[in-house]
Specification:
59% helix; single chain; Fumarase C, Chain A, domain 2; elongated; 2 domains
Length: 347
């Protein structure tokens, strides 16, 4: 199915192509041409005049972002262990004093992950990559939970049988009004995702610093001048650049088409595409931190309790990466990390 053509008023092109396939007018992906549906008067407009495709893409993006955030907090906890960071920024009392949406939940999760695994703090203050994590990641958590709210995504998140966006009235005027909240929700999620991912780049810089880890520069081993994980900083910076581009709000778009009868569009379809691209870039950036954090914890010899969630995650990552820390291509580790970050764990 060709995905382009929608601008947030209705997924006309995509839904029309689905309809043609169901009518036996165009082939399915497997090459099969078969009629499953014979429309009657009134069916055509009802079929194509909705944002069903964008809602579906948004819901898939929401699920992927929630899984990414789960991995993000696990990876962040490994990084904190590696640099002997302070757990004070995750104290319940700190977040009770300023209960911004999402941050208390993130802080609580970090306390759970670090229980029994965090060494004595090596510094009075850590970088914002650690200190500001509950506030910044909390904003993404709040966005994914519907704070600010988007009824279309929230209704799917609650696993209702049918999403309101699919069953609402189908006049074009109604659809314009329903697509904009969807676009704004996805735009908000992309912006929050970008800030959260940038903290990953900051922690990656800390992991490369001997003053933070007590290890060689860039976690290198072998001959003097070895580069270790240095190039992962370049990979991360490049991925974050792609993420910033994808995070640009699609809802800022304007258009005048159809001889002036349609002079507003939400561009929700573009926001859904951008959310997918943003998540790919965020995954690439987080993979760089995960490789480095796993290597750093291994080199420091930090005691990890493999019966805990963080210990199990560390062991899973360690088993997937090449244990050789001499200079070598890291492409295999990057592919393994990206694969791990796609998995869902109940830890």
């Amino acid at each position: 199915m060709h995905g382009y053509g929608a601008i947030g008023t209705a997924d006309l092109s995509a839904l029309a192509e689905i309809a043609l396939a169901l009518m036996g007018e165009v082939p399915f992906e497997n090459g099969q041409v078969r009629s499953y549906w014979t429309p009657v008067t009134g069916d055509a407009l009802t079929f194509i005049e909705s944002n069903a495709m964008t809602v579906a893409q948004g819901c898939l993006g929401l699920a992927e972002a929630e899984n990414w955030l789960d991995h993000y907090l696990l990876t962040s906890a490994l990084s904190l262990v590696a640099v002997k960071g302070s757990t004070e920024p995750f104290s319940a009392a700190v977040h009770a004093a300023r209960p911004q949406a999402g941050q208390a939940e993130v802080a609580q999760r970090m306390r759970e992950l670090l229980a029994g695994s965090s060494p004595a703090a090596a510094r009075v203050q850590d970088s914002y990559g650690f200190r500001a994590l509950p506030q910044v990641a909390g904003a993404l958590r709040a966005s994914l939970e519907g704070r600010p709210r988007c009824w279309a995504l929230r209704s799917m998140r609650r696993r209702r049988t049918r999403c309101t966006a699919w069953t609402a009235a189908t006049s074009s005027t109604t659809q314009i009004s329903t697509a904009l909240p969807l676009a704004l929700a996805m735009d908000h999620t992309k912006l929050a995702l970008a800030s959260v991912a940038h903290l990953s780049g900051a922690r990656l810089n800390n992991l490369s610093d001997p003053g933070m880890t007590g290890l060689n520069s860039f976690l290198a081993d072998g001959e003097p001048g070895s580069s270790g994980v240095m190039l992962l900083e370049y990979n991360s910076a490049a991925a974050l650049a792609r993420l910033r581009t994808a995070a640009q709000p699609a809802s800022l778009g304007v258009t005048v088409i159809s001889r002036g009868t349609e002079d507003h569009a939400s561009f929700a379809a573009q926001s859904a595409d951008q959310l997918r691209d943003a998540l790919r870039a965020a995954t690439d950036a987080l993979a760089c931190e995960l490789i480095s954090a796993t290597r750093a914890v291994s080199l420091t010899g930090a005691a990890m309790d493999h019966t805990t969630s963080l210990g199990q995650y560390f062991l899973e990552a360690q088993n997937r990466f090449n244990p050789d820390v001499i200079d070598r291509p890291l492409s295999g580790d990057l592919a393994a990390a990206a694969g791990l970050l796609q998995l869902s764990f109940d830890l």
